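Shipment paperwork, digital attachment
Item: protein structure file
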Amino acid sequence: MNYTTLKSGIADYLHRDNLTAQIPGFIELAESYLFRELNVQELQVSVAGTTIAGGYGTLPTDFAAVAKITVSHGSWTTNLDYMAVADVPSTVNTHPQYYSLEKNQIRIIGAGADQAYTLFYTPKILPLSGTVATNWILDNASELYLYASCLEAARYIRDAGEISALSQAVMLALESARRFSERRGQPSSGSLQIRPRR
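Attachment content:
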């Protein structure tokens, strides 16, 4: 399925020929919901070696969510824990332990001038358009796109029965897509061993 066939599928599901102009809008509304709800771990990328200026670093333009942040200083590298902006103390140690997100920037709490961080993050999923024919969701969970878009159409025409039915279908398809994404991000059985804690 691609953007063109998705639009055709929505029209077929709705059994109406007077909503063609609105269908791209239904897809956009569905995407605004789906992109908030899905964090596709297999899409994660990293940006390494970015210097911290005054404790702050720039987020990538395609940033959606943090997976982890590491900071290197000399011969050591450490993973940072998240700290909410409201909890950041007025004075901090020079040894970085935490990060926060402030005004589209990463704040490394306790960062020194000569430290660099590596950001592991999930990028934004590109919305469908005339130039973007497909994306991860459409490739791997096309029914989720279809149901979520048709749900927006049902809301538009105020069809209570379809809203109820499609809301349930979207929730089931969304949960299935989440499980699928998690499975793809995990190693197969092979030589994987679970070791007891010490």
